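Entry 14: structure prediction run for DNA-directed RNA polymerase subunit omega. Input pasted below.
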Amino acid sequence: MARITVQDAVEKVGNIFDLILVAARRARQMQIGGKETLITKNNNDKYTVLALREIEEDLITKK
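Run finished. Output tokens:
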């Protein structure tokens, strides 16, 4: 199971509500297949975890 803290991601986006919107939008993009993940996918990482990791690594922004 992936353990991830969202505190770093919240600091990158601004607040928890915007983080939820940005991460959900990015997870949907990856799930539908329109956009590939920008980081290396681990074994059983779900799209929401991948989206949060991308936000933490500054690969995805609020805009």
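Notes: The chain has three helices and no strands. Will compare against the previous run tomorrow.
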